[in-house]
Amino acid sequence: MSASQIKEKIYIPIHTTNNQLVLSGLGKSTKRGIKKCNNCSTYNGTRSAVCKNKNCGVILKDSEEKSRVDIDAVKLLTGKEKQVFSVRVRDMGPDYRGFVQLPILQSQEDKNILSEVALCFVDSCQNSFDNSILKCHEEDQNSTNQVCDHIKSALKSQSSATPMKFKNDVLGSLQVTDDVKETLYILANEKQGCLVQQVSKSIMAVKCQATPKHPLGYLHFGFIKGKGRYCYEKYFCSCSEFIESRSIPGKEIRKCIHYYACIWSLASNTRYFDEFSYFLQFELPLSEPIFGHLNDKPSPLSETSKYIQQAAAMKVTANKCLDERYRKSKVIKVGCPSTKLMNIC
């Protein structure tokens, strides 16, 4: 067989009349399966882990194995002698989490010692710290204690929470009272632990005062996306102030200090502007630069305000598109005549 015959069998001509007829009805190309990098606006695949732009190199998402571990148990950076883990409670939903405490041992060979002295602070767990105290007074208590699933997931965990960074200039631009700003500044500058740590995509572990409800000095704060929405539009906190304000009908909902701590951390990083623009547009000034600059030098946080404005505009446009799409689908389902359908749609 000659070289030309082999070449004809291997290489199929692309521009032929048959191919043009087949591809003629496909319409315009779409952007399905690709997404823009938030840092450099380069298009990457939706499953890409790192931006393909070599000058950028932003991590788009973690690997599947790491994200799976992060959902189960994440170790917090406390700076203390005890290890604190944020664990997911499987029976209560994907956003419901609790805490587990483990001691720090020099040797990790014997995990039976860890399981015996480990403490679970999940409210719904039968082997939680409060239930264990009550069982000590029962007469028919078994000699061997069962280890709950939350402690087991903490023992297997190899991932740590992401400490959130804070910018003092952003704190000055928050639309809150001076007392709240002073409290946030004091909490953020404490030596032990970080004020806000990200344990999942939408859940934060926030430092708080140690109380009977939160004996470890940490609580969970989470954001919720609306149905079919790209941005987060709701939030929840496990503090007593937030729970009491929601339980009493007609009472004005007061934003807790943990809410402002999360907003401060999110506004200090441009990576979170798009998804959390709904909250940032209310807590930060959008019409003017975030803080004044001296000698007419460009302020780095003026770019922050510009990014927030863009994210807010994108959110408004996306909401209009979704509302228009819902209205058109509703008209089509009713089955109106073609003339009316053309006038309405």
Structure description:
The protein has 13 helices and eleven strands. The protein is α+β, with helices and mostly antiparallel strands and 345 residues long. It folds into three domains: 32 residues, no CATH class; 90 residues, no CATH class; 184 residues, no CATH class. The strands form three sheets. A five-stranded antiparallel β-sheet has the order 7-8-9-10-11. Strands 3-4-5-6 form a four-stranded antiparallel β-sheet. Strand 1 and strand 2 form a beta hairpin. Helix 11 packs across helix 12. The protein is globular. One of its GO terms (cellular component) is nucleus. It comes from Acanthoscelides obtectus.
Question: Characteristics of this structure?
Answer:
11 strands; 5-stranded antiparallel sheet; alpha+beta; disordered C terminus; C2orf42; 345 residues; Zf-tcix; 38% helix; Putative treble-clef zinc-finger domain-containing protein; 3 domains; 13 helices; 4-stranded antiparallel sheet
